């Protein structure tokens, strides 16, 4: 416990932290990208072009980095986590490809989404191929650890799908409580981050308490991450997020700021409630953003995000982990929940 | 070998055969439907309604029956095959739900398709949920046999997706050779039937030669089945198939009759080639059907189907299997490749 705390202290200077995260992401990419490219080559030639279009857009390898660090944190080589890192990136990209169709989003990472470029049919099938490939990667050599990792990943994928289904259902509802919204975001984003943060430890055959602590770290981090994402979806700059601002509001998505504002007793919150009852023009979106700000929902969402980040770091500090990788996990958690990530 | 042959002989009377198949399907349904219902209940409540709409349409439990029989054929109880039967029906229904979106089909089993009733987004997510659930069912209790079954099923699912991708790509091509078409159909339909016909034996821990023979039986049966399906898609009655006739032609699908006709040196085949170069009106569809008939493609497709059926039955008779279940597999093969199925 003290180990993590002391390393956390040394990572406190923001300069150190982002340098270390940049190094970590670079290291992850160099280990995982070639392996990912090799397995994508197993897909049918008809799908590869579309999938490369999607993958070439980049991606932060955040989930892959969590997998590698979770292997290292329990004393294994980062390489032990590579099949898990590849599998989790496949599942993540499958979900992005399908979510973009579901949400009708035209752009991701400043480029046309897969369905916008290749059509809905290709995007559905390409996503399906990636989802199945994730299972194949882990079941190729069915050691006890890989089989367990496959089961953990399948369960997390199902939880993510359930969160996405809740998200879709919420668009047709007039309001969503903050608790319901947090439950939905725990599924939509938390489940896969929880899986990522523990999958390396599963592959390393770590004791269950370490795996559990890492899973709790990842789940809390996921909710913190989604809270920041919700704020950026409303107040972020398109140039940084790679997506048009205001989309979430226009689609009547029940994000955390909206759930907070519409269930608050403030005048702004009540005005927002009426506004969201119908279609939103561009002007309405601007008004909605101002009402969200006035209701205090932006600050409250950031506060909730910070509290989940603390929960994540607490879980990390309670676990029996190696100091170096644990400090990198903490630095990564700070990085992905920063407003300017 | 002689065992199968003699039982095949006793199943030769068509009356016996269809009575036995009806009994088999009934038995399969009573074993598999409750287990399927139980696992669907594990999906998020937001998805269950849509999935029940789809499953309530019926379905022949053909793949499930193959799984149970393949367990029985290697000497195990049919119950041993149930997790595999449930998993394969989940994968089959996932593929139907997504294919209906891809093909823009509005009706299946005389009812609106899932996407037509609930929207594309729900249909995508519902299909995803079923695909992942199939893996969860097998990995819930990761015995060596179930893990192997999960791997076999994941590989078959990927081959099916590749076949579907080839099918989509072929719609944009002016022609497809008969060999290319058969390869595509081996993936699209053969891969999952091959998996179904061997999955029970995998779960029963049967020796590899028996598993392989059953897989070859299923692959050949799948191609024979698809050949009949292609014929019914053009000459079948909507009332029996549950789908509008002429859709395949209108969508420029390269089915076996089309591949045969357009690569034949007949005048009818060459006229069909020109006709298919542009959009088809209802009148054009009628002309295309007549040209297909004139080119001999209908008879040729049925002949190819029969030859694959013989290949399937040969594989069955070469395998070391129990006589009773082997005879039921043979009867089922005859039944699903009959024109009036």
Could you name the key traits of this structure?
homodimer; 341 residues; mainly alpha; Farnesyl Diphosphate Synthase; two-stranded antiparallel sheet; disordered N terminus
SS element count, helices of chain A = 17
At CATH level 2, the architecture of chain A is Orthogonal Bundle
Question: Could you spell the SSE succession of chain A in H and E letters?
Answer: HHHHHEEHHHHHHHHHHHH
Shape of chain A: globular
Number of strands of chain A: 2
Summed over residues and divided by their number, the pLDDT of chain A gives a mean of: 91
Kindly give the count of domains of chain A: 1
CATH topology of chain A: the name is: Farnesyl Diphosphate Synthase
**Greatest interface and its participating residue counts:** A-B, 41 and 40 residues
What does this structure look like?
2 copies of one chain form a homodimer. By secondary structure, chain A is mainly α. Chain A has helices spanning 2-10, 14-40, 45-55, 62-73, 82-103, 114-118, 120-139, 144-171, 178-203, 208-235, 238-241, 247-250, 256-262, 267-275, 282-294, 297-318, 323-336, and strands at 107-108, 111-112. The first copy, chain A, has a single domain (2-336), classed as Farnesyl Diphosphate Synthase (Orthogonal Bundle). Chain A has 17 helices and 2 strands. In chain A, strands 1-2 form a two-stranded antiparallel sheet. Chain A is globular. At the A-B interface, helix 5, helix 7 and helix 8 of A face helix 5, helix 7 and helix 8 of B.
